[in-house]
Design goal:
The chain contains seven helices and seven strands. By secondary structure, it is an alpha/beta fold. It has a single domain (about 10-230), classed as 3-Layer(aba) Sandwich (Rossmann fold), CATH 3.40.50. Strands 3-2-1-4-5-6-7 form a seven-stranded parallel sheet, with helices on both faces. The two termini are about 20 Å apart.
């Protein structure tokens, strides 16, 4: 297992699914993990599991569509820790699966705000702290539909396509210093609440649990890989 002792990680969408599993895996590897999500009670349960396993974590209940709250969080992290080593951009919203012409604009705005704009705000707020790390990692969670459009998935897919482009640009812009690596992570079919909403007739046991993705992330952190690479977990 990769040794993340003295490393600080921040994981969004950390109250359940891939975010919670990844936070617990990072903590097991030695990182102190900042858990970020709206559901404080669910995050407390994740924090308790981390502590019970001998790890350490801090919860930060936060609405990621609130840009000012993100700035305040980055200021608090800077004051307490002075840097950030791992930023995992995991939180996301599926929205309604509907033909493009029927996409409801208000809902589409919410999807873009969480799946794209919030991640931009996080990168902007935490970039100075990432640059203080000896070797920072940014992991952005995407979906296969971001690169391969699918009928009725236009709203969600377009938000992920835009996120991939944003992360690719950030990777290219920061590559010269060789101190920050961006990974675009496609977790593939995973047993999450979002998956159950998208495929209500699917048996959960037919797809892998989020812990598989979390363990793959630990492997990714220890691998040699160019910044901006896209990785799929099958």
């Amino acid at each position: 297992m990769i040794d993340l002792k003295d490393k600080l990680a921040l994981v969004t969408g950390a109250s359940r699914g891939i975010g919670a599993a990844s936070a617990e895996a990072l903590a097991r590897a030695g990182a102190h993990v900042i858990l970020v999500a709206r559901n404080g009670k669910a995050m407390e349960e994740v924090e308790e599991r981390i502590h019970a396993a001998g790890g350490s974590a801090t919860i930060a209940p936060l609405d990621l569509t609130d840009g000012e709250a993100i700035v305040k969080l980055s200021s608090a992290v800077a004051e307490r820790w002075g840097k950030l080593d791992i930023l995992m951009l995991n939180a996301g919203m599926l929205g309604s699966l509907t033909p493009v012409q029927d996409i409801e604009l208000k809902e589409y705005g919410r999807i873009l705000n969480l799946n794209l704009v919030a991640n931009l705000a996080l990168i902007s707020a935490f970039d100075p702290l990432l640059r203080r790390s000896d070797k920072a990692e940014v992991i952005g969670v995407t979906s296969s539909v971001g690169a391969k459009p699918r009928a009725f998935w236009g709203a969600y897919a377009s938000s992920k396509a835009a996120l991939e482009s944003l992360l690719g640009s950030y990777a290219d812009e920061t590559a010269y210093a060789n101190k920050l690596r961006v990974t675009i992570l496609d977790p593939g079919a995973t047993r999450t609440r979002m998956r159950s909403l998208a495929f209500p007739g699917e048996e959960p046991e037919e797809v892998k649990p989020p812990e598989v993705v979390a363990e793959r992330i630990l492997v990714l952190l220890g691998e040699e890989r160019e910044t901006g690479a896209k990785v799929r977990v099958d």
